[in-house]
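Worked example

This section walks through a single chain of length 181. The input is the sequence exactly as stored; nothing has been trimmed or padded.
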Amino acid sequence: MSPSARRYGHIPGVGVNTHFRTKYVFSSSSLVSDFYPISRTELKEAGVHGQPRRGIYGDPKRGAFAICLSGGYEDNEDYGDRIVYAGSGGQMNRRQIVHQSFDDADNKSLYASWETKRPVRVIRGADKNKDYYNPHAPTSGYRYDGLFVVDSCEIRQGMAGFNMCFFELSRIAEQGEVPEA
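Given that input, the structure is written out below as tokens.
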């Protein structure tokens, strides 16, 4: 892993709106049969996001370095410069099956970002979720969309009826416009 991934703020040499490719594989199970991303290799090598599969990358005590928004949770809301991000955990085959909590290490990372106000890198991935369309997601691969700050966090009931950790993030000014697909 690139040592620069464990830092806050922009990554030197990676500009806002930088596009990264991804690899897709075919998965077939009783609940899922679709192409899905398995590799964030370029993101990891560039130091933008250090986790190959999880959406939140951070340190539970110091805060999140980066999040990836790519259609993994039905409760996510993306308004371009503002995101309501559903926390991590409790899913099987992209369906929520148990409650989330701030005790989860990834959720602790975003919670710490709320406390410290350290900036979080936001990466948007091509949205392969056929249940909704995100106009702010790239049509393919991943895109680094700049720095956001966690403005609030709470636990409330999500769409599937389970308690979910919700984090509201706002984009730091003067980073240009968020592209639309």
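What to look for: The longest helix spans residues 105-116.
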